[in-house]
Amino acid sequence: MPTISVKRDVLHAGLGKQYTEEEFDELCFEFGLELDEVVIEKNDEGKEETVYKIEIGADRYDLLCVEGLVRALLVFQNKIQIPRYTLSKPGKLERLEVDPSVLQVRPFVIGAVLRNITFTKERYDSFIELQDKLHQNLARKRTLASVGTHDLDTIKGPFRYMGRPPSDIKFVPLNQTKEFTSAQLMELYATDSYLKPYLPIIRDSPVHPVIYDSNNVVLSLPPIINSEHSKITLKTRNVFIECTCTDLTKGQIVLDTLVTMFSQYSDTPFIIEPVETVCQGETKVYPTLKYRTETIKADKANNLVGVNQGPKQIAALLSKMCLESTVNKDDTISVTIPPTRHDVIHPCDIYEDVAIAFGYNNIEKMTPHTLTVAKQLPINKLTDQLREGVAQCGFTEALTFSLCSRGDVGTKMRKKIENIPAVHIGNPKTLEFQVARTALLPGLLKTVQANRKMPLPLKIFEISDVVIKDLGTEVGARNERHLSALFYNKSSGFEIIHGLLDRVMQLLEVPRCGEKGMDGYYLAESQDESYFPGRAAQIVAYGQVIGHMGVLHPEVITGFDLNLPCSALEINIEPFL
């Protein structure tokens, strides 16, 4: 859930009322938000001011800035009417021309213009902050979409969006005084903590996307940085917004959100000037600011929410949530979805807003019409019982990551990753999380590695799921519940691990039987590469191999930067259900 920071004084000024912390917390709860915390921060002038940290829904992009939050709360309190966002009709639209050379890199660009806008320091900061928040969540760190904002009075259209070799792109980037090529910028920002994460998006491409005006002035190098020439300031009156994207839908949502939030500062509020995009002979106009209508029934809303409201009452509740609603002659309700509410994609989202507007605390508690008796899943019940039993044997429980590196389950365990039925992550962010674990033992060994300074012996265990690749299942993989234990000391302690196995089998009421017996468990010779030859055994229960135990091979121990012998055990407990 994203959290936004809002200055209390700015918030109160927008709402037109001074709230106590308790009163505002209650208002947030009624609207479906949460006041996470209240902190004191120093502003640019060194003065202390109160800041509210507010947690909002991940899909409510319209609440990511103070403008959208204030507007939504005022509508919710019936203090203002729901704004109507419209497109202006200038004599000539600004135009973005897409060159075919850029289609292989970042194929889409759309734009809009905010005319006669008035900035203050707070409005300007909020404008920049909203762009950053949209970049981070909806645009997936600028990979799907990125926004550039420019002072329209310093540039001249039509604008050209094209791909050019990095060495041919030269301009003065934002907050710089020297001209750089795009290739030089890749080196310059390689150590910049803010821009460094975005460089890989275009760095290795043979051409980089760039936007020029009609005078060959560079506007921006998307998605990295804008030009110093066209930067917006507090004196800017006309803002040209361009949004380049690889996902046109996401780009439209970003653009819609940005222009609808800040068009209120124009001389004529909520009027947005569109921009036409020309690509391969086809002309389209953005933003669309599309309104659509959904029709719902009052009975369906009442049944799902658990209330008893008439059509007019439900329409009024939805209007409080910025979903303007009217009652039709057949008592159905027509709900208008504005361009600010891209989170509404199904009638269920509308029913949720009915519940929020009605108030969750006001919904009467009642006994469900269908009675069921809940009980714990058998596998979880068995896990809890074994967890308690193993802990009573003197072992400490560990909780390790479900993802690990290929080396953890492969090379370090003396196994080939090609022979392991592991589920691989398609685009791993770090080398530590490349595959879903197929065994618990590597995680326990890494836990010991991180706690080598603890007093010996170290006796740890874990009971959790591993993931096994299985093409016979619907999703191509399945979970298995495993129990693993590890003993680390100056001596191997095989007898301790063996004793733990016997105790676990005793708890499971599985008797010891003769070799190849089918009515209990026994130990057989193991050829598992992770264990020392001749000091390992496979565990067979009811005729099937359920795991292995023994003294770990020295190469496994040194592979995890350990220097003392280890004995380990890992079994699959699902056959005992």
Automatic annotation (TrEMBL):
Protein name as annotated: Phenylalanine--tRNA ligase beta subunit
Organism in which the protein naturally occurs: Acartia pacifica (Copepod)
Keywords linked to the UniProt accession: Aminoacyl-tRNA synthetase, ATP-binding, Cytoplasm, Ligase, Magnesium, Metal-binding, Nucleotide-binding, Protein biosynthesis
Main location: cytoplasm
Entry keyword RNA-binding: no
Signal keyword on record: no
Gene3D superfamilies documented for this protein: 3.30.56.10, Bira Bifunctional Protein, Domain 2 (3.30.930.10), Phenylalanyl-trna Synthetase, Chain B, domain 3 (3.50.40.10)
SUPFAM superfamilies: Class II aaRS and biotin synthetases (SSF55681), PheT/TilS domain (SSF56037), Putative DNA-binding domain (SSF46955)
